[in-house]
Amino acid sequence: MKALFAMKVLFVSPEVFPLIKTGGLADVSGSLPSALTHLGVDIRILVPGYPSVLHQLLELKSVATITGLPMIDAPVQLLQGIIKETQVKVIVIKAASLYERAGSPYIDAQGIDWPDNPIRFSVLSKVAAILSSDKSPLINWLPDIVHCNDWQTGLTPAYMKLTENSTASSILSLHNMAFQGIFSAEWATKLGLPSEHFRVDGFEYYDQLSFLKAGIFYADSLSTVSRSYALEIQTEEFGFGLEGLLAERGEEIHGILNGIEMDEWNPASDPYLIKKYSATRIAGKKEVKKALQKELGLNNDANAPLLGIVSRLTYQKGLDLLLPNIQRLIDEGCQFALLGSGESSLEAAFSIFSHDNPGKMSVTIGYNEPLSHQIMAGCDMFIMPSRFEPCGLNQMYGLAYGTLPIVNATGGLADSVIDTGVATLKNKTANGFVMAEASSGALLAVIKRALDIYREDPKGWRKIQRNGMLQNLSWDHSAQEYLDLYTKTIETRKI
Ligand code: ADP
């Protein structure tokens, strides 16, 4: 039976696909609200008004004006619009001086953090808190729960409790502990946070202001994007200094694995592929591989194992572990297709291999949504040796596309990829290959193990592909888990 009154959720995120995306958080923020809508939740997303957001939303209209926000003189406008693809409602913060500029949401063209990031994301956090308070309702809609995501929204629970006296509950999802939003102490007062809470039991972190710590401390409930990561972040290796606080709240950290957006990531309907395919009609994958080889200038060789990488090129992703092995694997007949950007030393190192191995290794530096789909579909294997990975989406795209993921056993990779072995082949759970540890030796060993099956046992390979492709990777299950968590959080809210 449908509830009489739908639960109202304000979903606060610094990036939302397809409006603005730098990584997996955007994918989650695009898909989860849509899946929750299907469960009867009345949800609105709050996002900064970047140019691409303002351009893409439908039916954009002004709904309120806010004055007196810390550190900005001009009034800020709130607009409301609809995402074309999902029909989800979005509230946009229109503040030209903060958000309407070229470059990424977080860094300028030189890769340097925007110096006013504390203001830009405190405004996002503060507006969320104001919208959740019945003190001075800005719009005729008051959320029951505010769902915050990552450090950019970390001050929301603090403002809700300390300055806005909000009636709503809050939950903070931790998508990546490596980014925390730590700024010098004077920002706390500048951003309107009460100075008496600049302390260990508050938003202070080693004499600085930490957005993420504020969120972890003040949120009524916490979640992470996989069960393994929920446990890992309570240890020194993965907690990035916040493991103590997280361990204190350990019982309350819920691990919910992300789903994938099946409308976007489905080889049977993917508009970026010249040929569609599925678990039962896999032949089309060969044609996509051929087209990809042509597009990237790789040799037209149906039998050459094609290994794909789509990634931010950073220490986290562990792709440096591949560097000592690339030439050897190419010499043994492998091809590589890499798409990514990030640390210049990694970009340069991969580019040199591509230069030295024409027709065998393709490196595309940059961000390219269509090519990411084509690599995912056209390759035989997908490499993700991350040192830590809160959830990871690409390995799940790999599963859906029959492109067997080769991963390190960490976080969401450990929770979604099941290593191929005698037992897992027998019980039909094998869906990829898992490294023994994060080292280049272990990576080479696991790739060789995969290559052996690819070359010697095509039937076995197809079985593993089918196991992954037939899994239900959609948001249905995870969205229900979030809904249960919202209900529990509202019922047991900390006073
Ligand atoms: P993270 O969020 O840590 O970067 P995830 O695996 O969770 O890693 O999500 C990455 C998302 O970003 C995926 O949707 C992936 O396809 C996409 N992506 C990463 N780099 C690129 C790129 N250079 N071009 C296109 N898409 C990319």
Structure description:
There is one protein chain. The chain is α/β, with parallel strands linked by helices and 495 residues long. 37% of the residues lie in helices and 18% in strands. It has 20 helices and 18 strands. The protein has helices spanning 24-38, 51-56, 96-99, 117-131, 155-162, 186-190, 211-218, 227-232, 236-239, 243-248, 284-296, 323-331, 344-356, 369-378, 394-400, 411-416, 422-426, 440-456, 458-469, 476-491, and strands spanning 8-12, 42-48, 58-66, 76-82, 89-94, 145-149, 169-174, 182-184, 204-205, 208-210, 221-224, 253-255, 306-313, 335-342, 361-365, 381-384, 404-407, 433-434. The strands form three sheets. A nine-stranded mixed sheet has the order 3-4-5-2-1-6-7-11-12, sandwiched between helices. It has a six-stranded parallel sheet with strand order 15-14-13-16-17-18, sandwiched between helices. A three-stranded antiparallel sheet has the order 8-10-9. The model has no long low-confidence stretch (mean pLDDT 96). It binds adenosine-5'-diphosphate. Adenosine-5'-diphosphate binds at residues 23-24, 27, 310-312, 339-341, 367-369, 372, 391-394.
List the keywords.
495 residues; Rossmann fold; nine-stranded mixed beta sheet; six-stranded parallel beta sheet; 37% helix; globular; binds adenosine-5'-diphosphate
Question: How would the blueprint of this fold be written?
Answer:
Blueprint: E1 8-12, H1 24-38, E2 42-48, H2 51-56, E3 58-66, E4 76-82, E5 89-94, H3 96-99, H4 117-131, E6 145-149, H5 155-162, E7 169-174, E8 182-184, H6 186-190, E9 204-205, E10 208-210, H7 211-218, E11 221-224, H8 227-232, H9 236-239, H10 243-248, E12 253-255, H11 284-296, E13 306-313, H12 323-331, E14 335-342, H13 344-356, E15 361-365, H14 369-378, E16 381-384, H15 394-400, E17 404-407, H16 411-416, H17 422-426, E18 433-434, H18 440-456, H19 458-469, H20 476-491
Parallel strand pairs: 1-2, 1-6, 2-5, 6-7, 7-11, 11-12, 13-14, 13-16, 14-15, 16-17, 17-18
Antiparallel strand pairs: 3-4, 4-5, 8-10, 9-10
Residues 23-24, 27, 310-312, 339-341, 367-369, 372, 391-394 line the site of adenosine-5'-diphosphate.
